[in-house]
Records
---
Amino acid sequence: MIAFGGNAFQRKGEKGTVENYWKNARQAAKAVVEAINLGFRKIVLTHGNGPQVGVLLEWMEKGEDVAPPMSMDIAGAMTQGWLGYILVQTIHNELARHGLLGNKVKGVVAIVNRVLVDKSDPAFSNPTKYIGRYYTAEEAAKLMKEKGWEMRPDPRGGWRRVVPSPDPIDNIEKEAIKTLVENGWIVVASGGGGIPVVANDGMLESVEAVIDKDLAAEKLATALGVGILVILTDVDYVYLNYGTPQAKPIHRMTVTEAKKYLAEGHFKPGSMEPKVKAAIRFIDNGGLEARIGHLDKAADVLKGVSGTIITRD
Ligand code: ADP
Ligand code: MG
């Protein structure tokens, strides 16, 4: 299972043009070819959607006079289609270029994928995940009244909408994904952490929330019984004392060491913390090994010569 950060598609300093998207997806496609060349035969991919969902919400807001805005869950589904399409198209072509299509791999498919969360998850009464653009305090007051949004000051400045970030419980489409993977398909699933739904009287209802993509990736990886979870982001290693002069990259740590560092607060909530948590859960749930490294060094991370490796004790 390889998880690509949302920043994999829209890099720092880029405008996020169509060309940027195709170029960045190529990097992800190269990682897939590398994985096949290293002998991996069951490959599942997932991706973040933070920047994309932000952009979509802004488009909807700006176009409110032209067409009614969609809800958060629909926006999430739209990003799965958007990034899923770009990924499958790019990976398809990269596999064809290397003569791997129809040979070692049947093809690539992207799934519109829902993830179950618990309606009594404490996150619903304490929304923490910042989404969309930044507003002034006056604009925020107006939006909270008019749209019923929950809004908070972002530590980076300005006011932003906050939504709950509940823990993923189960991947609704996991059996379909498993069938595809076991039959030689590369599957893109659980994009943006999956579309959150809650169970109500045997029915599934959509909720306005955002699931962390790293935690959702772990749920799917565990359900599929894959051996290795690889999280590709924009830092080379997980660091101790990150952002201080004592910062030190971790090359290898056991799951027990990871838990100790996590408790000591080395990993920032909302960025590195969920990645390390996902790694810990993956191994505690039977996974072999987790790796966290830089997308641009994907080949080396897959070979195990770059990035942080989290192992069993
Ligand atoms: P992604 O889109 O890949 O999920 P995130 O921004 O959520 O990316 O997480 C990656 C970021 O985590 C890095 O850019 C880095 O700034 C931050 N980070 C926080 N704590 C650490 C740490 N201990 N070691 C490395 N990076 C960290
Ligand atoms: Mg993230």
---
Amino acid sequence: MKKHPEILVAGGAGYIGSHAVRDLHAAGFTPLIADNLSKGHREAVVCGELLEGDLKDEFFLDRIFENHSIQGVMHFAGKCFVGESMSDPAIYYEENISSALTLLRAMLKHGVNNFIFSSSCATYGNPVSLPLRETHPQDPVNPYGETKYFIERILKHYDRAYGLRFCALRYFNAAGASLDARIGESHDPETHLIPRILGTVTGKFEKIQIFGDDYPTSDGTCLRDYIHVSDLASAHRKALLWILENDASEFFNLGTGTAYSVRQILESAQKTTGAEIPFEKAPRRPGDLTELVADPGRAINILDWQPEYSDLDTIMESAWKWERHRRY
Ligand code: UDP
């Protein structure tokens, strides 16, 4: 491998992508960030070169591959809200699938065949057994998960037919922010649980709604496996190194194996912030599943990866520090 290899990070100005960019830079790679800034933030690019443009614009991509010696591509760009995908599925199918196809076409045309893809635990659908292993059947129940699943299928065939090598990383719930609070989560509108709760503390939102308290769980609220965004970032780097060393493709869960309920997250936020956080019960959100929890064993064993920052205290404290100091 070349010294300081160039890695194209599509969507590198977004929440998870910007953490991956910093992690790559710290590990001696040269990240190039392709982002149209429709959802990403210029301020989130704290290292590497920002190349502003759209992934559906093949000429934009051609220029990048012609002007750089890219060793691999990480693809974070795309729409990422379960609820929105239920109310407006068209933008999910159009945006997520067409940008992935254009990016893959440009890569292969320019002889770049190492690809790390942001997939999701939403590709599994309703769990028939828990914790979820990578071999669990995939039958997504919302368009967001379905677009991720379709792209996984595309990758499998591109591997067989075109020699693409990929890792599809099935994230559970990305959470937290960089420990120095320089970068963090910033969506507009914000729908994710932890930033909604913390935004209630800072007065951005009036109260937090708990979507459903009649699920078959111990306190009636949904269970999710929260994984710190810096742990996701390190997993991407390790997955890329694994592809480069092994010339192989694989699917990996990225979670911790521990699930917390919506109420437990609320309690953790109350403890961290010292605030009494107003909440109300609300109807279930369409597309939500009762429980999602990972078996992360494959990533731990094969990628030699370990979640380091994903205990709930570190997640909440880093998210709270970010919420108080955020610049975007
Ligand atoms: N949730 C909630 N109130 C909110 C936002 C989310 O009760 O304002 C619940 C949501 O129904 C799910 C969990 O919190 O059970 C995590 O939701 P989030 O949108 O953060 O991530 P998702 O699991 O949908 O990817």
